[in-house]
Amino acid sequence: MAVLKPMDVLDALKEVRDPAADRDIVGLGYVRDLEIRADRVRFVLHASGSEAERTALADAARAAVTALPGAPSVEITLEGEVAARPGADTGVLGGVKNVVAIASGKGGVGKSTVSANVALALARDGARVGLLDADMYGPSMPTMFAVDAPLRATPDNRIIPLQAHGIHLMSIGFMAGEGLPVIWRGPMVSNMIVQMISQVAWPELDYLVIDLPPGTGDTQLTLCQQAPLSGAAIVTTPQEISLIDAHRGLEMFRKLNIPVLGVIENMSGLHVGGEVIPVFGEGGGERIAKELELPFLGKVPLDPAVCTAADQGEPIVQRDPESPASKAFVAIARSLAAQCAQVNAEAAGGDDGAMSLEW
Ligand SMILES: Nc1ncnc2c1ncn2[C@@H]1O[C@H](COP(=O)(O)OP(=O)(O)OP(=O)(O)O)[C@@H](O)[C@H]1O
Ligand SMILES: [Mg+2]
After folding, report:
1. Is the CB of residue 139 below 6 angstroms from any atom belonging to ligand 1?
2. Which numbered atom of ligand 1 lies nearest the CA of 140?
3. Which pTM value belongs to this model?
4. I want to staple 265 with a disulfide (CB 3.0 to 4.6 A). Which of 51, 106, 148, 299 is the partner?
5. Which CATH number fits domain 96-348: 3.40.50.720, 3.30.450.20, 3.40.50.300, 2.40.50.140?
6. Lowest mean pLDDT, pick from 94-98, 136-140, 202-206, 314-318
């Protein structure tokens, strides 16, 4: 009987796709600790999604490997536990497994919309999620989540985040009042950011999503230096001018040694009567990701319902989870979660999980 090679198994598993993320399970980093002994194949499947979705993926993976020559027996350990960044249990943001910044070089490309909907999509998949609105000048979360309850503090004087739609929220808008002009000097911004990460009583979280203001200013620098970021995702529209600014944002994270988890393209085409109108151009996000050898995390269509839902305090993933835009956010959230897992595995042991082979 032919000897089964790890590459044969991985090639077979690459044929299995996570429909929500529209990528194969090896590329998503779901396959870990592959072991082959004689005609027995064993691996861990670390998949996102609901119990039913993960079980379906495990069934498809088992069928793909069993179909190999010699029909090997397959043992799959199905894991859904979110992997933590190294050092997640101590220090600043101790108890938060992954800290993910959503950034862009240019304003108005949809960072806040993406942050809110990706946070909700992660929570729908069963993760414990926090969302920090780090935009000191134009906080969005009070409107997007329709919350303005008074803040309370713990006995040791730390601020308790508010909750809406199952996630934990903190925004300067909860303190300063929505609609008030917020005037800050540079050092005050940095101070406030430090307080928002160290003086807030965040509960234990799988993901803290941080919605950044546009550009590469004080907030971004302070966060990169003070918060234990797992990585940053860059939002861009498909148009050239936005891409140039996206480059600038990417450069900043690279210089500060923050892993870039990937590129998200927003406002990538308006669907009208079966036709797609490329309002802001086409394919720019994918192009920039390819150029810079970064993962492309997905694209979100331009859809007036996305805007209306956010304005009415119920982001689209919450209001209409079956809409095309919501499905796009779910896919992006899963790709982002997979990239976090990959970065964590690399930081922990220099391996990328999918390729760790034992004989
Ligand atoms: N995919 C989309 N379809 C329709 N409208 C969208 C979409 N994404 C964002 N918007 C709308 O575009 C506007 C800008 O989005 P958003 O506030 O999320 O951008 P931003 O990058 O956070 O902006 P800023 O740089 O000011 O923080 C908002 O009115 C939002 O509702
Ligand atoms: Mg914003």
Report:
1. no
2. 17
3. 0.82
4. 299
5. 3.40.50.300
6. 136-140
